[in-house]
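User: Can you recover a sequence for this backbone? Please restate the input before giving your answer.

Assistant: Of course. Working from this structure:
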């Protein structure tokens, strides 16, 4: 029979904090300290502060020595764990973080946007989950926000995970999918009015992707032949006839310029469609209720 001592689990010590001005590192330090307090059932507030200071090193040690001296002179009071945490989140820092979050926009890659938002939210400890989710969604580009709403995200963690997956979704084989810089090209974005002369939203890095019945091959002499078909999407919506479209790269056009074309407009290129269907390695992703996309990279 195992003894009581043998069954005990040793609680890992928290990592030390050096004072690096990195919001994620600070937030992780405080979070791990709180998990450590729970694991050793430390309830006394003063003891929590005293224990946490044992894991301060370098510049934070000097900072605490000055704070401790101020406490002895009754200049300041740090008696609870919340008092201690507030020392790392000055009011002006939280205010500036809120201000920066309000002006943060998804202008470049979605990966950079998620990273910047994550950093800012760690500097605002008293912002509610509901507020954070609203700000995260509201600052996204239209296509990305619509995609998250289609997937029915209800909390911040899920929203950020789905947003990051959009980036992963479009990467694929970097040597083959350069033209699909934006996940909208994968069929994951919001539908836009079928005005084929209107520019698409997004960053300057977005490919020239045109929606739906965009480039019919007869519209210009240099659009005589399909180079290859990159993807297929099938749209099913209640009360609307099923729509089949293919993401086409045309011969004679820049590599990054692709377009979604209705299947009816591609009848003369049935051999390309047949090869896409029969030979390509495909994978399917549900992008919204009633809409699926089969992606293939050639």
């Amino acid at each position: 029979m195992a003894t009581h001592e043998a069954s005990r689990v040793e609680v890992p010590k928290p990592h030390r904090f050096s004072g690096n001005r990195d919001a994620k590192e600070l937030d992780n330090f405080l979070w791990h300290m709180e998990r450590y307090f729970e694991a050793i059932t430390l309830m006394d507030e003063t003891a929590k502060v005293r224990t946490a200071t044992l894991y301060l090193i370098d510049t934070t040690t000097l900072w605490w020595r000055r704070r401790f001296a101020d406490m002895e002179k009754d200049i300041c009071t740090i008696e609870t764990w919340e008092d201690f945490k507030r020392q790392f989140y000055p009011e002006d820092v939280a205010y500036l973080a809120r201000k920066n979050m309000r002006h943060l926009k998804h202008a470049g890659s979605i990966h950079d946007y998620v990273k910047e938002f994550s950093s800012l939210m760690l500097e605002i400890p008293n912002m509610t989950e509901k507020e954070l989710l609203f700000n995260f969604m509201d600052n996204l580009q239209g296509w990305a926000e619509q995609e998250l709403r289609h997937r029915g995200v209800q909390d911040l963690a899920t929203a950020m995970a789905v947003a990051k997956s959009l980036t992963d979704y479009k990467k694929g084989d970097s040597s083959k999918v350069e033209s699909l810089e934006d996940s909208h090209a994968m069929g994951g974005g919001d539908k836009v009015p079928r005005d084929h002369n209107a520019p698409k939203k997004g960053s300057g890095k977005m490919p020239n992707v045109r929606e739906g019945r965009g480039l019919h091959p007869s519209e210009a002499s240099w659009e005589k032949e399909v180079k290859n078909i990159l993807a297929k999407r099938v749209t099913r919506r209640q009360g609307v006839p099923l729509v089949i479209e293919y993401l086409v790269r045309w011969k004679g056009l820049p590599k990054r310029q692709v377009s979604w074309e209705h299947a009816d407009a591609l009848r003369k290129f049935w051999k390309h469609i047949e090869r896409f269907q029969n030979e390509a390695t495909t994978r399917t992703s549900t992008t919204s209720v009633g809409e699926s996309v089969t992606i293939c990279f050639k």
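That completes the design. Strands lie at 208-210, 226-237, 240-250, 257-262, 283-288, 291-295.
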